[in-house]
Specification:
Blueprint: H1 3-13, H2 18-35, H3 50-65, H4 70-81
Helix pairs in contact: 1-2, 2-3, 3-4
């Protein structure tokens, strides 16, 4: 799954405006790319590994609910570390 497919999945599964969820998924993808030291928009042309997809969706969910705390950040970072190269 590349970024555009992940965005479409999120748009179909969240109860909010498309523009709002689109921006939050894009922000989560950008965060994952930066955390993993990938080039900007890397996941728009490369497959997103499953653990990174999970981290992006988790971050999107909590950005949508505005309930980020230390344990959530730790979970997100743990998932993203699976695919650091």
């Amino acid at each position: 799954m590349v970024a555009s497919e992940l965005i479409e999945f999120a748009l179909a599964n969240y109860e909010t405006t498309n523009e709002t969820i689109f921006l939050k998924v894009e922000a989560a993808i950008e965060y994952a790319e930066k955390y993993q030291s990938k080039q900007n928009r890397y996941y728009y042309s490369h497959e997103i590994p499953p653990k990174t997809q999970e981290a992006i969706m988790l971050l999107t969910q909590y950005l949508n609910e505005a309930t980020l705390n230390d344990s959530i950040w730790n979970s997100i970072h743990s998932l993203l570390r699976f695919n650091i190269k």
